[in-house]
Amino acid sequence: MGVDYAKLYKNLLEIEISNSCPKYRRGRPSKITFEKAFDGIQTIIHTGMPWRCLKCHDVAHITVFKTLHKWISVDAFSRSYTRLLKLYSLKRRPKHYAIDSTFIKNMYGRDSVGRNPTDRGRKATKMTVTVDDIGVPHAFLFSGANVSDFKLLDKTLDSAMVPLVRGTPLYADKGYDSKYNHALSSNKYGLCDRLFRRRSINTRRTHAKRGIVERFFAWNDKQRRLLVRYEQKIATYAAFMYVHSGLLLAKRLGSEKSMHGAAR
User: Are residues 13 and 117 in the same domain?
Assistant: First the structure.
């Protein structure tokens, strides 16, 4: 019988919360449980509905909202995802990595925002992600939309939750091309430099392996809360990303086909 990795991810998150948020004996006991809070958060991420429209059995939407921010304050989402990612790294060795960025339209965000040069200067957030060959994210970095890509390579690779496997190729588009980045990926992180040169010719073959990061962005677009940033703090949006990525990673771990690319 196979392991239910989605349930495993929820158990890891629940353990992190129970260790970081001890229950207080004083006051009226709360009706909300971990399952109700997690299901409410998952509903918000998938549907993109406002918090006031969330309906949970015997629990008000403001209770789920406060519970989310309580979990964010103890960094429970990133810790649980990191633990699941470590389990994944023991089961499978990535064939290559790919890094790219995308713009997130901003509505109410106050931090990590800047003028988007591709959207007539409207404020937006840039998310830079490093994924492996089956689309599992290993690093997230949020910055203003007006920050150039080649300045974010070092910070993105340095923010990897699990150390990147040395000797693995790293693919990126021409926006990351610079002498500093070419030397950085090889010398500091021990990765095979596959950053595209500015004068290189674009073909379908050259972008075949880098396209997995574009598919990851497409998977994000299916979660309506991740399309536009409504959260004032970037930590809240990052928590939604960790939940989505944790469930995505659990799906990859449960897929026997994706596990055929084990370490060689």
Answer: no
Q: Which domain holds residue 9?
A: 1-91+234-258
Predicted pLDDT of residue 171: 94
Domain contains 229: no
pLDDT at residue 205, rounded to an integer: 65
pLDDT at 263: 40
Residue 212 is predicted with a pLDDT of: 93
* pLDDT score recorded for residue 39: 94
Residues 187 and 244 in one domain: no
Looking at this protein, which amino acid is placed at residue 63? T
3-state secondary structure of 64: helix
Number of domains in the chain: 2
User: 3-state SS string over 140-167?
Assistant: EEEEECCCCHHHCHHHHHHCCCCCCCCC
Flag residues of the chain having pLDDT under 70.
1-2, 22-27, 29, 202-206, 256-264
Tell me: do 79 and 98 sit in the same domain: no
Secondary element (H or E) of residue 197: none
Given this model, what pLDDT does residue 102 score? 96
Query: Are the C-beta atoms of 140 and 150 separated by less than 8 Å?
Result: no
pLDDT score, position 88? 93
Q: How far apart are CA 69 and CA 150, in angstroms?
A: 33
Largest CA distance in the chain: 67
86: amino acid identity, one letter? K
Q: 244 and 216, same structural domain? A: no
> Are 209 and 108 in a shared domain?
yes
Q: Are residues 85 and 98 in the same domain?
A: no
d(CA 64, CA 46): 16
